[in-house]
Every structure is written in structure tokens, then in C-alpha cells.
Design a protein that fits this description.
Elements: E1 11-14, E2 22-25, H1 27-31, H2 33-47, E3 54-58, H3 61-73, E4 76-80, E5 90-97, E6 100-107, E7 116-124, H4 128-140, E8 143-153, H5 158-163, E9 169-176
Parallel strand pairs: 3-4, 3-7, 7-8, 8-9
Antiparallel strand pairs: 1-2, 5-6
Length: 177
């Protein structure tokens, strides 16, 4: 990991988006040129020898991290979007959020059996988005290599939830207990 104190950039927002939730705002980290560069470098460096061919990032903050990681790895980027945002045939997967439900979609031709995939997001909490993205990767026949995120809310046990479905590595930069 880099020399940046990532946690010092995270701002807690109380009662957002609903009462009782403490939202972890990563935008100050992304706004800092050294912080952003360090995040991208740390994730990319960790997977540099994994022969990743595609990075999947979930809408929308997964795009902010996933696309530059893909660039650094010399891989393509595949957006996993909310329903109705992609113009061609898609695979779709429903999932539960910390406070609701949603779906992710990817183009059916975005990945293939020859691809080695890294799923990247800003945050892993209840793991719904991560599991949905991984199930989309499975539907394409591509090989899921690992999951990565800037922030992991360990008190919600995302590793255990993901582990019920997938055994791949989960690499995060910040763990919040």
C-alpha cells in the first residue's frame, strides 16, 4: 500500500441516505490528486501480475475507480449499469442494498470465456453489488479473478456474504469496524 492515510480522507455523514445510516463519503479522497493516484496505484499494483483482461465496475462510483485501474492494468473496462441504461442485449442480476434493492446489467457481449475479470467498486458493505456483479461475470462464461474496493465495512460482514457464493480474493484498502 501507498503512503497515503486513506482513512483521514473519509467523511462520515450521519443519517444519510436515511436515519440511522452513517454514510462514508470517499469524495474527498477522490478529489485529492495524491489520494486518487495512490488508490489507483495500490489496487493496480496488487493485481498487476494477475493477467486481468477486463475490469467490471458498478454504477456509478465503481466507474471512478474501475476505469483507471483497467487502464493501469492494460485491460478493458466493463460498466455494470442500473437497469435501462445499456442499449444492447444485457444480462441482468437483482440484489439487495443496505437500504433497498436494485439490479445491475452488463452487455451480453462485454465479456467472454477468454476474459479474466477483476470487479472494482468504491465500497463493499452488505456485498449485494459485488455478488450481483460476480453473477453477471459468471453468466458470460468469463473467469472471475478477484474483488477490490477502496472501503470495506467489516461490521456488515461482506467477506462472509461473498464467501457464500464465491471464493475469490477480496482486496480492500480501508477496513471500517
Amino acid at each position: 500500500m501507498g503512503l497515503i492515510d486513506y482513512e483521514s480522507y473519509i467523511v462520515d455523514i450521519l443519517d444519510y441516505p436515511e436515519p440511522g445510516v452513517i454514510f462514508k463519503d470517499i469524495t474527498p479522497l477522490l478529489a485529492d490528486e495524491q489520494g486518487l493516484a495512490s488508490v489507483i496505484d495500490d489496487i493496480s499494483d496488487h493485481f498487476m501480475k494477475a493477467h486481468i483482461t477486463k475490469v467490471v465496475g458498478a454504477e456509478a462510483r465503481g466507474f471512478l475507480v474501475g476505469a483507471p485501474v483497467a487502464y493501469r492494468l492494460g485491460a478493458g473496462f466493463v460498466p455494470a449499469r442500473k437497469p435501462g441504461k445499456l442499449p444492447r442485449d444485457v444480462y441482468s442480476e437483482d440484489y439487495a442494498l443496505e437500504y433497498g434493492t436494485n439490479s445491475l446489467e452488463i452487455h451480453k457481449d462485454a465479456l467472454g470465456p477468454e476474459d479474466r475479470v477483476l470487479i472494482v467498486d468504491d465500497l463493499v458493505a452488505t456485498a449485494g453489488t459485488a455478488v450481483a456483479a460476480a453473477k453477471l461475470v459468471e453468466k458470460t462464461g468469463a473467469e472471475l479473478v478477484a474483488f477490490s474496493a477502496i472501503l470495506e465495512l467489516t461490521f456488515l460482514h461482506p467477506r462472509e456474504i461473498i464467501g457464500k457464493h464465491f471464493s475469490q480474493e477480496i482486496y480492500t484498502l480501508i477496513k471500517v469496524d
